[in-house]
Batch of 2 targets.
Target 1
Amino acid sequence: MKKVLITGTVLVMMSLHSIYGQKFGDLAAIPPMGWNSWNKFGCEINETIIREVADAMASSGLRDAGYNFLVIDDCWQTGRDSNGTVLADPKRFPSGMKKLGEYIHSKGLKFGIYSDAGTATCQGRPGSRGYEFQDARTYASWGADYLKYDWCAHGKQNAEASYTIMRDALYKAGRPMVYSICEWGTNKPWEWGKDIGHLWRATEDIINCFDCKNYWGGLGVLQIIDLMADLGNYAGPGHWNDADMLEVGNGVLTFPEERLHLSMWAMFSSPLMAGNDIRNMSKETISILTNPEVISVDQDKLGISAIRWMKYGDLEIWFKPLDGGDFAFCLINRGKETVPFDQDLKTTIKKVYTIDDSFIVRDLWKHLVIGTTKENLKGILEPHDVILVRLQRSNAAGK
Ligand code: GLA
């Protein structure tokens, strides 16, 4: 009898481990795409803005281009009730999160929410520390599909353990949610995040500039590219290095800089979270954000991150293998002067992969075939400009 009981206990423990000790598996086979409120609105969010953004995601073509998560970042929460249940700000979100989630879903979008592994969020709102299972149940009851989980007010908490608790809580709550680890690369989440979350921020926060760094750690586009450069091997289907939300359409970057920004995020297979006011977008912003050929580089199912192949002064050449034997090449000019380029892409491929084939070269921003790899790719790059090409085995647009 005793023996049977012990066996039963062991079995229960084993099954608890298998219930909690995993994340939702297939939710991010390709990098998640969507929109997040933080870059544009910060704490100035409310239900009207979120509903209008949901409308605009559907009507502008963003949703159909793949941006399907609408993530409400910090400042939606004000406190907890006497049972510890987290409360949305009743002034800003009078209909409540469940109703708002239903509205987001009614637009064919998925609903993302934000919290923090510490006792408070980065804006001093209630964090989930000590309330992980309760909060996960609350988000699930609201129909959330995505959780961004930040790292402020963490005291002496261990990052891996803290993120694991929320992973287990989400799993226990039973509603599949993409789980976004946002601890800024401080504890090298690429080394432990794969079985915990679906994506992890690799750097501190993006700021709206091309080449700059803030004293508190805010980083421009180039600074993030440099930090992402060596992390490629850690990412792949289901677990992505997150280069942070996009600054496309936020009024500071020039169009070439915005194209470079999106191109490199795509080369890294980073999640693509628009961060602009998509209720009021120019035609140029829409066409940059929704470029299907660039998005297809990001969403490529192999999920291989780009390698920085060459650097000559301000000119850098990156490449990335794609599904079906294609390759993406991205040439960027980091500097303020024009730079000439004259590249034998065929020999590069041969050196790295011992593949001696010829390819069609398609410019993914011009949407044109510009030659084949039988000739060198030649030209001049304007300051902060980019050329993104796909070496194709067949001449199909928007692959
Ligand atoms: C941190 C995160 C940002 C944003 C803010 C909100 O800085 O890294 O992406 O969520 O908190 O307070």
Target 2
Amino acid sequence: MPDPRKTFFITTPIYYVNDVPHVGHAYTTIAADAVARYKRLDGYRVFFLTGTDEHGQKVHQAAQKTGVGPQQHVDALHQRFKDLWKRFEISNDDFIRTTEERHKSVVRDILQRLYDQGEIYKASYEGWYCLPDERFWTEKDLVNGNCPECGRAVDKIQEHNYFFKMGQYRDWLSGHIRQNENFIQPASRRNEVLGFLNKPLEDLCISRPRERLPWGIPLPFDDNYVTYVWFDALINYVSVHGPLEEIRRCGFWPCDHHLVGKDILTTHAVYWSTMLKATGLELPKSIFAHGWWTVNGQKMSKSQRNVVEPNLLVDRFGADAIRYFLLREVPFGQDGDFSREALIGRINSDLANNLGNLLNRALNMLDKYYAGVVPAPNGQLPEDARLLDKASETARETHALFDHLGFNKILIKIWELVDAANVYINDMAPWNLFKTEEGKARLATVMYNSAEAIRTIAILIHPFMPETAAKIFRQLGIGESVESHGLESVRKWGGIQPGTKTAPGPQLFPRIEEEQAKKIMDTVQNASQAGTESAPAAQKQEEKLEQVSIEDFFKIDLRTGKIVEAEKVKKSKKLVKLKVDIGSEVRQVVAGIAESYEPERLVGRTIVLVANLKPATLMGIESQGMVLAASDNGKIVLAGFDEEVKPGVRVK
Ligand code: MSP
């Protein structure tokens, strides 16, 4: 049960719906999700917010291009973000859209209050306007006559507008940043903001004439104008809690972490902080600006045709592998590069070899020596203490690192524990212990500790790889609710109960061969070249086959078969030789499933066999049929039945 006094509020930026989401958007959201999940494990009541920024010039222009009205455009596009977050297992507690009435009414309320307080005034303005960034600049801000932020051309604009008296808060804000070390993180970014505040701070233009931009929230005190998109969007962090008076009652104010990319640090550190100050609301405890992802060394952009399509990444590699890669590969705060080599390297070495092998070998040995039941330990020796100490040290050190969002260091530490568990098994050599009676007494402790180390690891990786953690729990036989075990249970050894019946399953992360990886990455990037084409649709296209008649279908003789023998084919990584009973006879079948299934676990299973396939010879062995299975991102899952069926029954 979460402790009602421990509350935690974390946010992502709300993303523009001028285009479909890409891996950069996924990055911030996954990072926030990892923190939210960790805090929940630690007994906090968490409020994790994300959403979409649906007003402003960019969105309006995008809608015009597609030829639909702006509301229809944002209704369709915001769904892409929601769908993607589901696929990435994002556990947000709310999703706010700036076109919702609950948001608009709070924006109007804040504007009216500030206007009444004299914080907003109307003036004639002449300046340089960057359309893509939607920001005004003074002559001296420009760099070579272009926007200092994005380098693109700016337009000279003269008009009457409303201004928020931001400039008056400069000294106060500098002081606040200096006094609150964690307010802007990491430290290098903090210095950047302080540098920015060394220059005079202009007042902020917060309106756009309606005749130039009709798509926005009308100012409550002058409906010839709409609200500047940033002034509107930033308020989402407040409006999600309901009317302004609710904020003190909601239990989630001030915000603990606003996560943002480095591109939007100024708007958060300066605009948002001064807006909050003027409204009389407490500032967030921290604004953390992370780095920027490039692809093979280049900025991700549609014109470069290198945008990484996140849906396809999930299709091909699974959400957890991508979540792990993004948070492990670069320190949060620094820029990173997305490359095939780096991604595949991490999947094969960290996930398939280190983590996957640990689980497989431990469960195999438990199966072999204890029929899959976790034994009771027989007292701990000093050589066991090394593993136990490493586990508690990992829990302690990763906890401290979470305060500064040191994701990659946290993952390095957890993998040190994975390595320590692998080394422990090597050093204790259960296969030797099993040979003697004295050894067997010791074996129980070694196998118990191995299982408990894996349980600890599963809890620690849950914030990063929730699906994998649940799979490990399932295979350990301890249910799926990692959250119900909580962080407390990794702080002391012994959470797994002797007598627990394990349930080994397929490999967590099958290795990906270089050729296969190349093909996959080509599709991921080719699909993004198709612009806003959705990934699932692109995949469907690839798999579309011609229609067949029912007569054609019935030419295939699908039969139930019971596997009676299974052994690995020597010198082959993938092949298993099976003997399959199909009622009338026993067939010899060679199947490419060895990377996902241990042969011993296949015996007794009922599968579906293509019984009238022409025999073929694989590695010198005749195969008299083909076993049906789904191949998902290289992981093979056999087709089966949810109730017992006898061998030889036709499947249609
Ligand atoms: N709508 C504003 C934010 C308003 S918040 C009150 C906005 N939206 S955005 O769609 O452009 O998203 C910007 C955010 O997406 C960045 O701050 C960052 O969190 C993420 N990223 C977009 N591209 C990225 C990379 N290439 N690399 C890393 N993160 C990136 O700005």
